[in-house]
Each structure stands twice: as C-alpha cells, then as structure tokens.
Amino acid sequence: MNSQVLLSMPGGGELLVIFLIVLVLFGAKRIPEVAQNLGKGIREFKKSMREVQSEIDSTDPSKTKIEAPKPEDKTDAK
Q1: What is the CA radius of gyration of the chain?
Q2: Domain for residue 11, yes or no?
Q3: Which residue range is the domain that position 42 belongs to?
C-alpha cells in the first residue's frame, strides 16, 4: 500500500461524513457540551504541562540564572 495515501488529510467529503457520524452519535444538544469539556481538558493539560516544566526548570541546576556582579561604588575613590 502507498504510504502517501495513509498519511493524507481528509477532504471535504470525508469531513462531512465524520461530522454526520458525530452528529448521529452525540446528537445536536450534546455536541456543545462535548466541545466545552474537550476545551477544559486541553486547558487543564496545558496548565499541568506548564507546572511540570516550571518544576523541572527550578530543580535543574544547569538552568539556574547567574547573577551579574554588582558594580563597585566609585564615590569614595578620588
């Protein structure tokens, strides 16, 4: 089988068939609820990813910030 056929994006006809199947399975009233719950799940996943990444960054010694040396006070030198 040609690998390009398997990796191609669905066209207009295929998207219409998928939409009709989803409409039949969930019904018109449940689709907004499903979409809302999917959005909440994606937001929660991204939030968890940010928390894990910040925790990794805070414990990784190679990513700690190095402070620049403080400038010397030259008011006393004359």
Answers
A1: 27
A2: no
A3: 30-59
Query: Does some domain include residue 34?
Result: yes
Kindly report, residue by residue over 21-71, the tens digit of the pLDDT. Answer: 988 988 888 889 988 999 999 999 999 999 999 988 888 666 556 666 677
Classify residue 40: in a domain, yes or no: yes
The pLDDT of residue 42: 96
Contacts 24+ apart (CB under 8 A), 14-22: none
CB 31 within 8 A of CB 22: yes
Cα–Cα distance for residue pair 78/60, rounded to 1 Å = 45
Whether 76 is covered by a domain: the verdict is no
How many domains, the chain? 1
Neighbouring CB atoms inside 10 A of 31's CB total 14
pLDDT band at 12 (very low <50, low <70, confident <90, very high): confident
